[in-house]
Amino acid sequence: MPYEPNDVLSRHFQRDAADLLSQVEEQIGVVAPDSPNAALYRDMVLTVLRMAQDDRNRWNAKITLQALRELENAFRVLDSFKGRRKVTVFGSARTPREHPVYALARELGAKLAASELMVITGGGGGIMAAAHEGAGLDYSLGFNITLPFEQHANATVDGTENLLPFHFFFTRKLFFVKEADALVLCPGGFGTLDEALEVLTLIQTGKSPLVPIVLLDAPGGTFWQGALNFIREELEGNHYILAADMNLLKLVYSADEAVDEINQFYRNFHSTRWLKKKFVIRMRHALNENALAYMQDAFADLRLNDDFHQHVYSGEEHDDAQFSHLTRLAFSFNGRNQGRIRELVNYINLSENWVTASKTASVQTRQPLQET
Q1: Statement to judge: residues 209 and 327 lie in one domain
Q2: 307 and 181, same structural domain?
Q3: Which of 56, 105, 112, 357 is 20 to 30 A from 1, comparing alpha carbons?
Q4: Is the separation of the CB atoms in 305 and 275 below 8 Å?
């Protein structure tokens, strides 16, 4: 939350809080002149100063320092891979090379790389090593964890700039999801199940953007089918989740199916964001009038009040100008039922719902939506 001069560090500091705030802002202006994020950096510094003022616990301070260092290092390293779509692959580090799923993960890595998709894994052995083998170094990123017992990165990323070490699981898990444009989960142990359920929870609750979640198993495998049976019978059957939540998952039995599912998801859909209380879906192709008319009724449960509106980029505050060529589909989303949002994405990805080339110009000249 932002701080005001009158309520920042005023209890024990001799100098006036407004003077302190001014000095912080001055220093930020020196290191980051004209930065649009200056107010955010100011609040970060003030948060640390307030923590120093309280000075309650050394362990708390060490956790904060380590987390900040890991975040800053990861942001800096990953900036060189900005703009490249990435797929996080989870699975057991104990999967032996002779196991069918190992070969499947290796093939998956190769197919993802062929589709210009980078492969993120935990950087270890088993499924992680297999996926990186297939993808090769140029298409691999490893987020390795420092453990009390011996832990080695796999041969593909070990000793390279494509390997990021993490001390904390929570910072590592943040980047597994933050950087992922899709997730593929192979069979694994507690860690794999933990990642699967956390990702589902984040997307189901809208805390993380919608991306494809693919469950991959070898032909005839029962690992994920058994898990899905349990989810349907116990979670959906007892109304602990919505029936539409099952749309967030797709079970496949080949690398081709996994990659096709990811590519299909981005056939027209590009990304989402919240803008002035509107939920905005960015699209590569505008939708035709028949598709929009159908959506008003078929997906009415997703809207709070007004209709779905399609518009072009109009220089919205804090929106990314690099996406200015994309058409926007905006509506007052109720914030619930991400599984139905996935159904909407599937619908806008159907090519028969797109505006034909001859009509694209007329769509692009329409007045943009006036945000409230």
Answers
A1: no
A2: no
A3: 56
A4: no
